[in-house]
User: Which sequence fits this backbone?
């Protein structure tokens, strides 16, 4: 008897919700951007294709810094949502997920025994995420996409909203890349924070008088 | 048996019909092929459990109307 292969009977695409981009007053450039990237940020009109929450950014930076002295790469997923504003889509990274890694100073992948911890980390994000890209570090090597990185990006993250974030904790650099028509290009991005992440959110904060005024 | 498979990198889903003796690898191949992806670059999970390629649907503990998730398995270099 011939065994039948699985058959796909229906499919659905993600319904992209309309939502305004984070306002400019709650966005900042990343402090590790190169001078050139910082100029691109300044010249932008504030309508980015990628926003990374302060929480996610801190987790990525701390992860990379935790292996800085060992000079070992780190890696994880960018968990986020895709929205539309003004007829253009943008990605909002809210959190990251990672696990135990099989890494050296020039290579990184998830440890084969680490997937269940990765899934727990993804579920801990507590929202209906889309993996909008990945991050990894290049300790001491600068920010660029190697051929291995380009292969990963081509095979898995070739959508218009997919990004590859590269961080170098030794040289204190960060950059985000995307594939566009088969070529790698840098993608400007902003760090944003939600109002509730303000430590004084919901409180009335009184300015303290200077000692000389008392 | 029917399954729903979610593509974690797009949020899209497919409904799949299969037999109890189909393998996890065949599920990955079917879904990856539908989304024009290379099956070797992905893993699949049911809840927090990684499903191994050569297991059959029965051995993997997959039940009717389960929802699985296709997840990329990236590799970085410098």
Assistant:
């Amino acid at each position: 008897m011939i065994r039948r292969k699985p058959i796909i009977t229906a499919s659905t695409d993600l319904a992209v919700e309309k939502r305004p981009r984070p306002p400019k007053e709650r966005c900042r450039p990343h402090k590790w951007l190169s001078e050139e990237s910082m100029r691109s940020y300044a010249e932008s009109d504030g309508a980015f294709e990628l926003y990374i929450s302060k929480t996610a950014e801190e987790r990525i930076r701390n992860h990379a810094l935790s292996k800085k002295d060992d000079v070992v790469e780190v890696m994880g997923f960018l968990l986020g949502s895709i929205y539309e504003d003004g007829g253009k889509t943008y990605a909002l990274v809210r959190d990251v997920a990672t696990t135990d890694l099989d890494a050296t100073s020039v290579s990184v992948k998830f440890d084969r025994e680490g997937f269940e911890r990765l899934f727990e980390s993804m579920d801990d994000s507590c929202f209906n995420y889309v993996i909008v890209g990945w991050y990894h570090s290049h300790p001491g090597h600068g920010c660029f996409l190697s051929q291995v990185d380009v292969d990963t990006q081509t095979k898995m993250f070739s959508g218009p909203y997919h990004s590859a974030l590269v961080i170098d904790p030794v040289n204190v650099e960060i950059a985000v890349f995307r594939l566009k028509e088969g070529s790698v290009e840098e993608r400007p991005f902003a760090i944003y924070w939600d109002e509730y992440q303000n430590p004084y959110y919901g409180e009335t904060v009184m300015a303290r008088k200077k000692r000389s005024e008392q | 048996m029917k399954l729903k498979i979610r593509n974690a990198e797009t949020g899209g889903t497919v409904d799949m019909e299969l037999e109890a003796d189909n393998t996890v690898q065949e599920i990955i191949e079917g879904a990856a092929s539908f989304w024009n992806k290379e099956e070797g670059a992905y893993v699949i999970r049911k809840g927090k459990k990684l499903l191994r390629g050569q297991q059959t649907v029965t051995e993997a503990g997959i039940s009717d109307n389960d929802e699985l998730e296709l997840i990329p398995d990236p590799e970085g270099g410098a």
In short: The longest strand of chain B covers residues 66-72. Strands of chain B lie at 2-7, 13-17, 42-46, 49-50, 66-72, 75-77.
